[in-house]
Amino acid sequence: MQYGMIGYFVPHSLYPAGYHCNPQEPLPFASLASQKNYMSLYLMCTYSDPGQETWFREAWAKTGKKLNMGKSCVRFKKLEDLPLKVIGQAIKRVSVKKFISYYESATQGTNTSRRRKC
């Protein structure tokens, strides 16, 4: 659990720097949250790479299910709204090494005083 969500993370043993907002926390990879009117699936592994996000959107479209995707999450009301195979494939497609590389390039040069305000 992190930030009130069920989460899957890159442990400190693999990425000692941790999450830039709070280095004491492990680097988030995917999370599931329950909101007031819907549930959210956060796929940081998908949003970190434009090519991966394109693949995800195209694979989802092929299922015929409606995609309700925000800047950092996929929103849904019931489990049947999700193409679970596509989600599993999306997570499987991104190795931890690749995710860390994307993450570091995205946060490179971030001011440390600003980073802690996430």
Explain what you see.
- The radius of gyration is 15 Å and the shape is globular.
- α2 runs antiparallel to α3 (84-93).
- Helix content is 37%, strand content 17%.
- With 118 residues, it is α+β, with helices and mostly antiparallel strands.
- It has a four-stranded antiparallel β-sheet with strand order 1-2-3-4, with no helix packed on it.
- It has helices spanning 44-47, 50-63, 84-93, 96-107, 112-115; strands spanning 6-10, 27-34, 39-42, 74-76.
What's the short story on this structure?
The chain is of the alpha+beta class. Helix content is 37%, strand content 17%.
List keywords for this structure.
37% helix; alpha+beta; Aspartate Aminotransferase, domain 1; 118 residues; 4-stranded antiparallel beta sheet; globular
What's the CATH topology label? Aspartate Aminotransferase, domain 1
Highest CATH level, the class:
Alpha Beta
Helix-strand pattern: EEEHHEHHH
Please count the helical segments: 5
Spans with pLDDT under 50 lasting ≥5 residues? 112-117
From the alpha-carbon coordinates, what is the Rg to the nearest angstrom?
A: 15 Å
